[in-house]
Amino acid sequence: MRPLNSILSRVVVLHIVAVAITSLAMCIALSWLLNRATDNIHDEAMRKQATAIASHLRMGADGKPALQLPPDLQGIYSQPYNRYLYAVVDENGTVLFSSQANHAPVFSDWAKTDLSLDEARRGDATISGVSLRKNLDGKDFWIQTGENLSNRDALTDDITRGFFREVGWITVPILLILLVIDIAIFRRALRPLRHASLVAQNIGPTRTDVRLPADNMPLEIKPLMMAVNRALDRLDEGFRVQREFAADAAHELRTPLTVIRTRLDLVGNQELVASLRRDLDSISHLVNQLLEFAEVETAEISPDEIADLREICENVAAFVAPLAISQRKTVALTGGEEPVLVFGNREMIRRAVLNLANNAVEYTAEGTTVEFLIQRDGTLGIKDAGSGISPDERELIFQRFWRRDRKRSGSTGLGLSIVRRIVDIHDASIRIEDNPTGGTTFTVAFRAYLDGTL
What we know:
This protein is of the alpha+beta class. It has helices spanning about 5-55, 70-75, 155-190, 190-200, 220-265, 270-295, 310-325, 345-365, 415-425, and strands spanning about 55-60, 65, 85-90, 95-100, 115-120, 125-135, 140-150, 305-310, 330-335, 340-345, 370-375, 380-385, 430-435, 440-445. The mean pLDDT is about 80. GO terms for molecular function: phosphorelay sensor kinase activity.
């Protein structure tokens, strides 16, 4: 059997077991109480009958006891099925008066006290009743009254015998109602946990500032939430130190690189200088991208910032065009002439577009065109005619420092990771598609600003 993983399911199952046990115990207890109440009513009825008969017991003029019952009492003891019985006996056990045809006592053996509860067996029948003492002229007499339990009232018998079954049937809908109420209560009690789960889904390397709400948590859960938040604080501090280190290192490396580049002019071997300059250019590019990555990691975008995507693409296209032309490639910009407004930071979007454009110019074939495809819905596509990207590599290329060919110079493996970070902080999306004629199209979908709405 699979374990119950949900707190709600565990509580509900345990509650079902508890309610079932409680219901069973309640039925048994109530059945016992009903039987006891029935017995008490029976004993009280027998005592009242004995008292009523005793009130009509007199000492006659001849010095012998006489009993004259009124018609209502006579009717009780003259029933054809002989349900109720009475007898009057003296202290020697001699029966003076009896409702039975054989003039027998109700109880042949009884405790000779003022009032005793007695029971006798007659064949398959059980006679239950009382023996009440009455003193007349210094002599003790006992009035015995009994009820034949085999002829007990049918309604009382049905209630007693069917009580457990009837209460058990009523317990089923009560249990179901309790379950529905309990589930509603438990769901309401667990609502803060569900809210915390939704908040936790937003926590990641790019959102280390998010914390779990601990104010409205149950006392049992609050320490766990606070411990998680303290762990997130330490994690956020670690990310902050890492980002600051990368930025500081990039800043510190710029100066010595500039000094080295200047001193190369003093070296006489021009072939060596050219080789060293290429190496310095690669290192400078890496340092600049490290600095850019550190800045992007800490960037915050205002939700009401708006940028013109077409203007950004025109600027980037004009910037990369000389590089493309020097490599016998061209750059084209397609789309309408009107501005395409999107939500986002202009400088951050420009960096993302520039990295994608540089990547496209670098990998597209000679004699081909890098095309900017701008749509009114805020979607930008950058199309190249390179060798394409296999489906297995489409997630790897966004990882930091990942390169397909590590021997290739001029590539740091940071450009597309910067693009992914900028896309994420703008709540945008990016996808990679193969072109029918060869090459790849990177499509970035920003949130469009249309007449003041999304």
